[in-house]
Design brief:
By secondary structure, the protein is an alpha/beta fold. Helix content is about 35%, strand content about 25%. It has an eight-stranded mixed sheet with strand order 1-6-5-4-7-8-10-9, sandwiched between helices. Strands 2-3 form a two-stranded antiparallel ribbon. The longest helix is centred in the C-terminal third of the chain and has 29 residues. The chain is globular, with a radius of gyration of 19 Å.
């Protein structure tokens, strides 16, 4: 793997691999000031990969919604995680050069020749020159960003004129159209965990009210917003949504601890003796087939105007 050596991007050094240990889970190095609350270990990366699968199914096999050109040359995947989106995109577009960035070097070593991974804190000033990328893909950074307008302004600067940026973010409040979420009060406690945790860190987990406005403020035009419901479980009658729901449920069951451990124990310091009870309650709620819960996911994409 190759890495930039400037500013927000770091060369691979011992400190990058000095992951923080919290109750048997690992989190990104203290080298970065960003207080990201999700782990970077294998269990969490499995959930990242499952998430990628259900989002791809949701989009009917597509990796993006933005109308990018078939001859796209340079692509950036911000917060790449396991690298699975960047790898899939590189396979589909072998003539494109795809760069994935993340706080942790947790991506695979065996990758397509047109992919590179770099260590980068996307919430700092980006190191790339103006007008570098034809397409910038940003997905599931909720809970990681203090200033969304600043993030999208960096994307705008680094996007070529006529290029596209796409942001995809989930709203992780458990909802239902028939009121069945009220059967499981623990789901409201989970919402409070993310509300309070995001407020304590200054990095909100609920960003749909910010997302489109920040893209507009960054300067993008031809902006389109597309909302989807993503069910938890296979309760929908629609076969595609039932498949999506099975994998959403699997994502959560696989690592509900990873999604909540740091917030509960370290950020908010809620009673530790209640944490395992909370986890058991969440797993019970996921298995309750009479609860027809779903999340929302919002995609916002826009184009950088051509130079005049």
């Amino acid at each position: 793997m190759r890495f930039h050596r400037e500013s927000s991007t770091a060369s691979v050094s011992a400190s990058i691999f000095e992951y923080r240990q919290v109750q048997g889970r690992t989190f990104h190095s203290d080298k970065f000031t960003t207080d990201y609350s999700f782990p970077n270990d294998e269990q969490q990366l499995e959930s990242v990969d499952i998430t990628h699968h259900y989002l791809t199914v949701l989009l009917d096999g597509r990796l993006f919604l933005a109308p990018i050109k078939d001859d796209v040359q340079r692509v950036l995947d911000v917060g790449t995680g396991s690298g699975i989106w960047a790898i899939d995109f590189a396979d589909q577009y072998p003539s494109a050069e795809v760069t994935g960035t993340d706080l942790s070097p947790c991506q695979p070593k065996w990758i397509p020749p047109n992919v590179r991974f770099e260590i980068d804190d996307a919430t700092e000033n980006w190191t790339w020159k103006d007008n570098t990328f034809d397409f910038i893909h940003i997905r599931y950074l909720f809970g990681a960003v203090k200033d969304w307008t600043a993030l999208f302004k960096e994307a705008y600067r680094c996007c070529v004129p006529g290029g596209w940026m796409q942001s995809g973010e989930a709203d992780i409040e458990f909802r239902s159209d028939d009121g069945t979420v009220d059967q499981e009060p623990v789901l409201k406690l989970c919402k409070k965990l993310y509300d309070d945790g995001g407020a304590a860190m200054g990095r909100p987990f609920f960003v749909h009210d910010i997302q489109q406005k920040a893209v507009e403020e960054a300067g993008f035009v031809d902006i389109k917003t597309v909302d989807y419901k993503i069910p938890i479980g296979d309760w929908p009658k629609d076969p595609k949504l039932a498949e999506v729901g099975r994998f959403v449920k699997l994502t959560l069951e696989n690592d509900i601890e990873g999604y909540t451990l740091m917030l509960w124990n370290n950020v908010l310091n809620w009673p530790r003796d209640e944490y395992q009870i909370f986890l058991m309650g969440m797993r019970k709620a996921f298995r309750n087939r009479s609860v027809h819960s779903y999340f929302l996911v919002r995609y916002v994409y826009g184009r950088k105007p051509e130079e005049t």
